[in-house]
TrEMBL record, chain A:
Belongs to the binding-protein-dependent transport system permease family. GO terms for biological process: transmembrane transport. The chain crosses the membrane at residues 73-94, 101-124, 139-158, 179-204, 239-260. GO terms for cellular component: plasma membrane. This is Carbohydrate ABC transporter membrane protein 2, CUT1 family. It comes from the Bacteria. It is a multi-pass membrane protein. It is found in: Cell membrane. Pfam families: BPD_transp_1.
Length: 274, 307
């Protein structure tokens, strides 16, 4: 290893991180603490007058942030739980059984990794089912959309678990239900962490499908609210509020990531790339 | 994903189960179908069915202006072909996907190579470069609009007056760079996983044979990274054809519709109440994705095997 690389690499890493990640985050942080007059032309200067508290309070009151937060939780959490449990059940069957029918069902179920969801006709279907503009409708759409991801990751993972573990329990008289809940699910922990993060990430950030299924109004999720706040920006010049919103919306995902960080990496390693 | 699809097909035929009376095959007892059923039902009901319906509604006059829905044949397709939005959306989306995949993978691979060894320093910076993945795409779009606006931070730092998001030629490239920025952390993680999977003695052997860093990279590591490349390129290319948030937040399809990808068009036209027309575009997106995905998956898979 040459000396230039030895000292050049860390220097390059720090420089890249500062420019590529540091600058945008800095902009968000300082702008979210500026009064409106200073924030009209977003720049990297420190606020001359600090008012983070006021901005965040405004984002909460004008941006309906608390309601948005609750709405997001009410659709994202059930979606994630359904995706994980239904996905794990399917993955278990897909990984362990071998027949043409199982292969076909598996291929069909992971086709969602490649195929785009038909968002316009989803609206039509939900209207006929009476689920348009409802949370159950949104949950069903997210679950259907992200099941492919969890089934794909989990099936790959279960295939690597020795069957003997299940057989031992079976000899002791455990039923399939018991084996699934007591043996398979606990072993899936790393890949469950990965799938949780991925699905949460997608669903928490989603605005496209939420726009079609939920629309604005009472049940609007955080990203829909952010979109409202930022669309008003054209007339109000409220970058300070937009970025206060961005910070609050991003923090839960950062927290989830920090908690599950190590498992995500091992989950991706075992699930996606073998 | 590609490899699993193919692999399942190549599996040996099912173990022959005794076709006796009164005895279920072992698999049905130990791994009963009903564990998979709820997932299959939800997936079929809320993913496959809408995609099937999408082969019907584009041929109707479904909109907010009629109470009933009537079959109208190819009218919607004729409309979007005649007003130029069809070809433009295809071209823009494909170009977007290509550039976004290029940037996302390029950045990700460089970061993975820079941060390969497991030191505390590297682990910290991996997390730093992963941060953009955690910030929603919509928020990412607004951050870069504030940076790149003509009145924005970049121009004020550089002392320039460049309309970064106002060029009908270059704005698409700028937006795909932002897309690459947002997802580079995920590509990096997958490349890191791929690099970790390369056996140490293989690199050792290359070094013993006198291979320098470049030679080792091109002859040993790059070929060994093939599965990671397959996964990354496929997900990036196909995923970015479904892009919406970043484009909507930075340009909303402009200037002069030069960044109007499929989903932006659907969003706009649906907002005008022309549901069937939006649905027609959605069907075209579906067909374009299929047309890109199949050769891509088959081709990359074949490449993996020959390397």
């Amino acid at each position: 290893m040459t000396a230039t690389w030895r000292y050049g690499r860390p220097a390059l890493v720090v420089l890249l991180a500062a420019l590529a990640v540091g600058v945008p985050l800095w902009l968000v942080a300082v702008t979210s603490a500026k009064p409106q007059a200073e924030a009209i032309k977003p720049n990297l200067d420190l606020p001359r007058h600090w008012q983070p508290g006021g901005n965040y309070a405004d984002a909460v009151s004008q941006g309906e942030m608390l309601r948005g937060f609750l709405n997001s939780l009410l659709v994202v959490v059930p979606s994630v739980i359904l995706v994980l449990i239904l996905g794990a059940g399917a993955a278990w069957v897909f990984a362990r059984r071998k027949s043409k029918l199982v292969s076909a069902a598996y291929a069909l179920c992971i086709s969602g990794l490649l195929l785009p969801p038909a968002v316009i006709t989803i609206v039509m279907e939900l209207r006929q089912l009476g689920l348009a503009n409802t949370r159950p409708g949104m949950i069903a759409v997210y679950t259907g959309m992200y099941l492919s991801t969890s089934i794909f990751f989990m099936t790959g993972f279960i295939r690597a678990i020795p069957l003997e573990l299940e057989e031992a329990a079976r000899i002791d008289g455990a039923s399939p239900q018991r084996i699934f809940w007591r043996i398979v699910l606990p072993l899936l922990r790393p890949v469950i962490a990965t799938a949780t993060i991925m699905v949460m990430l997608y669903a928490w950030s989603d605005i496209f499908y939420a726009f079609f299924v939920l629309g604005g109004g009472e049940r609007a999720t955080l990203p829909l609210n952010l979109y409202q706040v930022a669309s008003a920006q054209l007339y109000l010049n409220n970058w300070h509020l937009v970025f206060a919103y961005v910070v609050v919306m991003s923090l839960p995902m950062v927290a989830v990531f920090l908690v599950g960080q190590r498992k995500i990496v091992s989950g991706i390693t075992s699930g996606a790339v073998k | 994903m590609a490899d699993t699809v193919v692999r399942t097909r190549k599996q040996p035929p099912a173990r022959s189960t005794p076709k006796g009376v009164g005895r279920l095959p072992r698999a049905a007892v130990h791994h009963p179908w009903w564990f998979a059923l709820p997932a299959v039902v939800v997936f079929a009901g809320f993913f496959l069915l809408p995609n099937l319906l999408n082969f019907y509604y584009p041929f109707t006059n479904w909109s907010s202006y009629h109470a009933d829905i009537a079959f109208t044949g190819l009218d919607n397709f004729r409309t979007i072909a005649d007003d130029g939005s069809l070809l433009r959306a295809i071209r823009t989306t494909l170009l977007y996907a290509l550039l976004a995949a290029l940037f996302q993978n390029g950045f990700g691979l460089v970061l993975a190579l820079l941060l390969e060894d497991d030191s505390r320093f590297n682990r910290f910076f991996r997390a730093v470069f992963f941060l953009p993945v955690l910030i929603s795409a919509l928020a990412t779009g607004y951050v870069f609009r504030a940076l790149l606006d003509q009145d924005g931070a970049v121009n004020s730092v550089l002392g320039t007056d460049i309309p970064w998001l106002g060029s009908t030629t270059w704005t698409l490239v700028v937006v795909t760079l932002i897309h690459g920025w947002k997802w580079m952390g995920l590509a990096m993680l997958i490349y890191l996983a791929g690099l970790k999977g390369i056996p140490g003695d293989m690199l050792e052997a290359a070094r013993m044979d006198g291979a320098g860093p470049w030679r080792t990279f091109w002859s040993v590591r790059w070929p060994m990274l093939a599965p990671a490349v397959t996964f990354n390129v496929t997900t990036a290319l196909i995923g970015s054809m479904n892009t919406f948030d970043i484009v909507q937040a930075t340009t909303a399809g402009g200037p002069a519709a030069s960044t109007e990808v499929f989903n932006i068009y659907m969003f706009r036209i649906f907002g005008q109440g022309l549901y069937a027309q939006a649905s027609a575009m959605s069907l075209i997106l579906f067909l374009v994705v299929v047309a890109v995905a199949i050769p891509l998956v088959v081709g990359l898979r074949r490449r993996e095997q020959t390397l």
